[in-house]
Amino acid sequence: MAKGKNVRVKVILECNSCVRNDINKESRGISRYITQKNRHNTPSRLELRKFCPYCYKHTIHGEIKK
Question: Where does it localize (predicted)?
């Protein structure tokens, strides 16, 4: 079995709450995480619930383009 193209790719997860509050300037920054996903198992955009140090709570972090 030959290895094909890279199946596991690195993705950047960004806090959805901080992005919305960026207009209001309520948050100090935008929380980002780097993780890997398998393209065959999850072809759609990845969304995980992670801790945001700027919002001080667990929020949904969605995948962004590089």
Answer: Plastid, Chloroplast
CATH code, 8-64 = 2.20.28.120
Q: Tell me what pLDDT residue 61 has.
A: 93
Q: What is the pLDDT of residues 10-28, one digit of tens each?
A: 999 999 888 665 555 555 6
Strand pairing class (8-15; 57-64): antiparallel
Domain spans, the chain: 8-64
Inter-CA distances, 1 with 11, 13, 40, 41, Å:
26, 32, 17, 19
Q: Please give the Cα distance from 53 to 56 (Å, whole number).
A: 5
Helix, strand, or coil (residue 18): helix
